[in-house]
Fold each of these.
Amino acid sequence: MKKNAFTLVELLAVLVIIGILSAISIAIYSNSIIESKNSLSDFQKKQLVESARTYVAVNTIGFNNIFDNMTVGEDDSCVALAIKVLITEGLIGQDVVDPKDTNTQLDGYIKIKYDAATSQYEYNYENESYASSACKYKFWVENGVVKHTD
C-alpha cells in the first residue's frame, strides 16, 4: 500500500526550520528598526545644530558681544541655546519628538562655544535642561518671549 502523506517527523522538522528562520528574521528586523531610530536621532541632532547656526548667524552682533564679555577657554564660557528658542523663532517645528521614544518631546539645548584659535563657533547638542547647564549665558523662552541671562 502506497501512502502520499508526510510523517510526523517530517512535519516537525519543517516546523523547526520555519521557527529558526522566523527567529532570525525577527532579530534582523528588530536590529534594522533600532539602527533606523539611531540614524534618525543623529540626523535630528544635526538639524538642531544647523538651526542653532542659523539663529547665531541672524544674531551675530549679539553673540559677538556676549563672547567678548567672556574669558575664552573657561568651562562656563559658552551659551546654552534652548530648543524652545529655536521653536519660538520658527527655525524648527513645534512637534520635535525623540525618534527612540515617540512619546517624549525632544528637549535640551545647543551648547555654543567660541574657539579663538579658529575664530569659529562650536555647536553641540546637549540632552539636558538648559537651566542645569554650566554655561555663563542661557537663552530660553518664557511666555512666548526669548529671554537670556544678563
Amino acid sequence: MRIGDAIRTARRACGITQEELAQRAGITQAALSRYENGLREPSEAALGALAERLGVTVRLLRSASRLQGAVAIDVHMRRRATAKATVWRRLEAQLNMYDLHARLLGEEISVRAVHRVPQFDPIETPPADAARMVRAQWRMPSGPVRDLVGWLESAGCMVIDRDFATTRVDGLSQWSSDHPLILVNERMPTDRRRLTLAHELGHLCLHNLEPMLDMEQDANDFAAEFLMPEVLIRPQLRNLSTGKLLDLKRQWGVSAQALVERAYRLGAIDAGRRTGFYKQFSYLGWRRREPVSDELPPEQPRLAADIGRALAGRGLTAEEIAQIAGFTAAAPDNPFSEPGRRLHIVPSS
C-alpha cells in the first residue's frame, strides 16, 4: 500500500471530495490527485496538513507503506440492494481506516484473547456445522447467546459502533492482521444488531480465501444456527403465532422475522404460512419496527475502550493514546478515547 492509498481511503472515510479536502488543506486539487495516485510524494508540510484535516496522524499515513497489499480487500458487508454506492464505499473506507489504526496500535501493544475466531473451508464445512463448532470451541452454554459482543471480543474481535447515517447498511467486517474487525450500525435495534454480528462472524469464519457464490446465504445460515441452534429451537417453532413469536424473541434475542425465516428453513412452516406471517407483520407495522426490541438488553462494545483505559493506566494522556492509535486529539471517531474495563494487555514483542 502507498501513502496515496491511505490518503484516498481516509478522504473517502470522511465522505469528502478531492476538491473539498484540497481546499481545507491549502493545496491544489491537481496536487492531491497526484498524491492519491502515487504520481508524486507529498511534502512534509502537505502531508501534515492533509493528516490534520483527515483527523489522523502523519505516522498513520506513513505506516500504510509498510503494509503488503492494498486496502479494501476481503471486506464483507450486510446491506440492502438499495444502499447507495457512495454510502457503502464510505463505510468500506471507514472499516479500512480502522484496520490501519488497529495495525498501528498493534505495534505498541498486543491483546491477549481468551478465544480465537476459527476459519473453515466452506466447501468442506457447511455453515451450520461451522457455527456449532465455534460454539463448542468457545465453550458457550447451550441455549440463547447472552452478550454476543462480549463473546466476540473475548476472541480478539474488535467491534466498533458507528452511526451509518442510513438504515440500509447493517454492518461490515474484515480481518486485520491476526484479529478481525466488525463495524456495526448503531441505529439498529438489538435484535437486528445481534443477527448482523452473527452474520459477520459467519463471513469471518467462512470467507477468507477467495470470493464464492452464495456467501450471503452461507453467513445467514451460520448466524441462524449460531443464535438459534436447530436441536433447541425446532421444538419451539410448532404452532407459531404472533404472540408466541414475541415470547421467543424475548428468549432468543432475535427478531420475529428471523424466527419466521428459521422456522421456514427448518421446515416447521411452509411457504404459505411464511407469507401469511409477513402480511400480518405489514398490517401491524412490524416491518418498520417490531415490538419487544426495546426490552432486549443492549450490547455495547468494550474492547476498544478497555484498550484506552489500559493505556491510561500506564500514565498516558488522552492525547498520547490518540497518537499511538494514529488519531488526532480532536478526532470524533476514536474508539479508544473513552475509558473502559476488563482488558489485559502485554507489551508487543
Amino acid sequence: MNIVPPERRSWGNALRPYLQKEPVGALLLGLSSGAPFAMIASTLTTRLAESGIDKKTVTAFALTFLLYNFKFLWAPFIDRIRIPLLADAVGQRRAWLYVIAACTLAAIVWMGQVDPAADISRMVAAALTVAFFGATFDIIIDAFRIDSLKPEQLGVGSGMSQYGWRLGSAGAGALALLAAERSGWDTAYAAAALFAVPAVLAGMLLGEPVRRTALLAREKAEPFLTRVKTTFVAPLADFLTRPNAWLVLLFVVVHKLGDTLANLSFRLLLADLGFSKDSIAVYDVGFGLVATLAGIFVGGIIYTRLGMMKTVMLSLILMAVSNLSFAWLATMGPVNWALAVTIGFENFASGIGGVAIVAYLSWLCDLRFTATQFALLSAMASILGRFIQGTTAGSLIESLGFVNFYLLTTLLAVPGVLLFWLLMKREPPAPETAEAP
C-alpha cells in the first residue's frame, strides 16, 4: 500500500488553492493590470528626466493618474452595457476585457513613438490615452477577478492578483529600461505592450463568470428606469447606507497619501543621485520585485495568523516607516547596497499591504456592483496623493530637498494608521478566518 507522508500531504493542501483556475486567472489578470501603470509611472519619469525635462513638469505628469482615480465615473457602463455581437459570443465581461486589452496595447505602442523633448504636448496626449485605457482595463480586470473568485478564494485570489500586478509592473518596467538602453524607447514600449495579452488568456481560461451571468439574467427583466437607477445610483447608495461608511471612505482617501507621494517621486531621486538605467532595472525593478513577492508570501502567512484587519494595520505601520528609508537613501548618494536596502524594505512592506488591503477593499464590495464599487474604492485610495504630486510635489522637493520631503511623507502616513485603528474599534468583525493568500 502506497502511503503519502503527512508532510507531503500538508504541502499539497497548502499549494492546492493556488493551482485552481480562478486564482491562476487572477494572476494573469494582475500581470496585465500592472503594465500600463508602469509605463506612465516610473518608466515615464525615467524617460522624461533623461530627456532633460524639468522636475516640475515631470511631477505634473502624475496628474495623468487622476484618470485612474475618476474611473468610477465610467465604471457603471462597464457593469451594465453590452458590446453588440461580441457580448453575445463571449459574454459581457469577456467582451469588454478583450476590447480594452487591444486598446491598451495600441495606446502603449503609440506612446513609445512620441519624443517628449520634441513635442511635450503630444507626450501629454499619449500619457492620458494610456492612463484612460489602463484605468478602464483595471475596471474590467477587477470586476472580472472578483466575479470569478468563489467567496472562499478571496484571500488567495487577492494575493495572486498582487503577485501578478507586481510581476507585470516590474516586468514591463524592467523590459522597457533594458530595451531602451539597447534599442530605443519605441522598441521598449512595444515590447512592454505585450503584457496586455495575459488578461486575454485569463478570459479564455475562466470563461464568463457564472454568478455575474445569473445576476444579469434577473436584471434584464427589470423596467428601464429601474435599471438606470441600479446602474448609477444604487452602487453609491448601497455603500453609503452601511455603518461607518464615511469613516471607511475617509480612511481609503488618506491611507496611501504618504506612500503615493514617496513612490511617484522616487525615480526623480534616483536620477538626481546618478544611478544608471541598468542599476535602476536591477535594483529598483528586479530586486524590488523579489522583495515584493517575499512580502506577499509573508503577508499571506500573517493574514492566516492574525486575520484581515490586524494584517491591514500592521502593513500600514510598515509602509509608513518605509518612507524613512527613502530619506536615508537621499543622504547616501549613488550606493547600490543602500538602494537595495531601501527598495527591499519598501517593497516588502508594500507586498504585505497589497495582500491585506486589496482583500479588505474586495470584501467591502457588493457582488451586484462589483466594477463600480471597487473602482470607486481603489480610485479614492490614491487620488489625494496623485493630485498633490502633480501640483506641488516638484516645488516641495526643490524647496525642502529630498530628505525633508520624505520625512514629510512619513508624517502624512500617520492619519491612515489612526483612522484604521478607529475602524477596528467600530466596524463589525471582518471574515478573519477567510482563506489567506
Amino acid sequence: MKARYIFTVVSLSLAVVSGAFAAPLMSLPGESRKLKAYYYEGDHAGWDCVEAGKVVSVSMRDDTNVKDVSNTAMDRTRLSARLYTDEGIRVGDILYVINDSNLIIGKLEVKSVFNSASLGPMLVGYGNFKFVHDRDRVVQRIEGARSKDAYIQRARGDFYRETGDDAEAISSYKSALEKDKGNPEAHMQLGIQYLKDNMLPLAFREFSEAYKNISRMYDKEDRYTLLKSLAETRYREAYYSYIKADLREKYVVEGIKYCKEALQVYPGSKDVNFFIGTFYCKNSNPDDVLARDHLMKVVQLDPHHVDAYVMLSELYYKHRNKKKAREFSGKALEIEPEHERARYIYKNTETE
C-alpha cells in the first residue's frame, strides 16, 4: 500500500513539473488581449491592437556595418520576441513595442519567424529600439491581427475544396478576404476555383490580386502555382476565347512574362513549358527556336504529351520540313489516332 502511495505521488509530481515546462506562452496572461496603443502622452485616440508577445532581448542586427552607424544605434537595432502564436505574423509585417503606459516606444519590421525548442514561437525584427527593454510588449494592429482569422477561413476553404464542396470553398475564401483583403493564398485559391469553372476574367482578377502580394507567399510551391495559373489563364483567353487580335497579343505577352517567372521557380514544369512554347509559336512575332526548345522539353518530360507533338509538327510543317513534321504528327497519332490536326499534317507530309 505504501509503495503504491509513493508511486502515485511521484507520478503526480512529474506530471505537474512536465506540465509546467511544457506550457506554451499562449497560455500566459495577456494573450490576444485587445488594447489601445498611443503615440504620445495625452493621445486620447490611439489605435486598437492586440498583444502578440513580449520582448526577450535587444541587440545589434546581424548585417549592421559598424562603420556606417553610431555607437548608440549599433546595439539597439535587433529585437527578439517570444510570441503567443505565430499565426497571422509574416516576414515583412510591421509590429510595435509599447511600454507599461501603452505608449509606442518602438516599431519593427519582422525579419524572421521561427520555433524555438525552449521558448516556442519567436520572431526577430529590425528597427530602432533605443527605448525598448526586455519584457516590453509587442503588439499588432487589429487590421493585421485579423489575418489570423483569415488564415483559419482559408484553411477551411482548402478543406472544402479537397472534399469537392466548391460552393463552401468559395464562401470560405471570400470570408478570409473580408478579414485580410490582401491574403494572396486566399485570392489564389479563389482564382483556381474560377479557373476550374472556366470563368477566366474572374480567375485572372483573383490571381492578379494574389500577384500584388506575392512577396507574402513563402511557400515555393504556392508561388509556382500562382504564376502557372496566371500563365494558364492568359493561354486559355488567348486561344480558347473570342477576342480581338490586339487583345490576344496583349495576353500572349503577359502569358510569356508569367511563364518565365514560373520557370525560374520550377524549370521542369511540363505545363509551363508547353504554354510558353505555344505562345512563342503562335505569337504575331514568333520565335520558332525558343518555341521548339520549350516544346522539346515538354516531350522529354512527358513522352505522351499529344498537344506538344502536334505543336512541334505544326512548327516544322510551317518551315516545310516534311520529315520532322511527319515524325511528330505520327507520334501524336500513336497516342491519339483520331486527332484531326495530326492526321491532316501526317497525310500532307507523305513522301512519294
